[in-house]
Amino acid sequence: MSQAITSTQNTAPAAGFRADLQGLRALAVLLVMCYHIWFSRVSGGVDIFLMLSAFFLTGSLTRKLGSGQKVSVLGNWLHRFSRLLPQAALIHRGYRGHRLAGIAGHRMAGADQ
User: Fold this and answer.
1) Contacts (Cβ under 8 Å, ≥6 apart) of 61
2) List of residues 6+ apart from 31 with CB closer than 8 A
3) What are the Cα distances from residue 87, in Å, to 2, 61, 76, 80, 92?
4) How confident is the model at residue 16 (pLDDT cuts 50, 70, 90)?
5) Of the candidates 46, 47, 76, the residue with the CA atom closest to the CA atom of residue 59
6) 3 falls in which pLDDT band (50, 70, 90)?
7) 30: which residues sit within 8 A by CB, 6+ positions away?
8) What's the rounded Cα separation, in Å, for the pair 54 and 82?
9) How many other CB atoms are there within 10 angstroms of residue 42's CB atom?
10) Where are the alpha helices (DSSP H) in 67-102?
11) Residues 76, 53: Cα–Cα separation, whole Å
């Protein structure tokens, strides 16, 4: 009986869908969008993103260590980078498109006065 208890104690909890965390992620997206649309009148979205990122990263590393897997900092960074690179490229292209079209320049020109 003690062997069964020991084996269940070493098992890391399974990662699954968490509606509460997805709700926080949606709230963070809305706050960041509102911040950018209404120019600094709403904030807090980035703080929520950073908190969620730390929570997910800690959970992932805890599950790996709990299951006896080797944790590689470089491997972890490369994995994160490979997931973020396509989105960053899309944002960069969109920004460059706005700048080339002159859309952002007109809005920002009046902000300095």
Assistant:
1) 71, 76
2) 42, 43, 44, 45, 48
3) 49, 24, 18, 12, 9
4) confident
5) 76
6) very low
7) 45
8) 18
9) 15
10) 73-101
11) 13
What is the distance between the alpha carbons of residues 34 and 94, in angstroms, rounded to a whole number?
A: 19
Report the Cα 61 to chain-centroid distance in Å: 16
Q: How far apart are CA 64 and CA 58, in angstroms?
A: 10
Residue type, 90: L
pLDDT for position 1: 46
Tell me the pLDDT tens digit for each residue of 54-74. Answer: 888 888 889 888 998 888 889
Q: Please, which residues have CB within 8 angstroms of residue 18's CB and are 6 or more apart in sequence? A: none
Count how many residues are written for the chain.
113
Given 3-state DSSP classes, what are the helix, strand and coil percentages for the chain, each rounded to the nearest 5? 75, 0, 25
* 18: its two tokens: 């968490």
80-100: per-residue pLDDT in tens? 899 889 999 998 898 888 777
Query: Which has more confidence, 10 or 55?
Result: 55
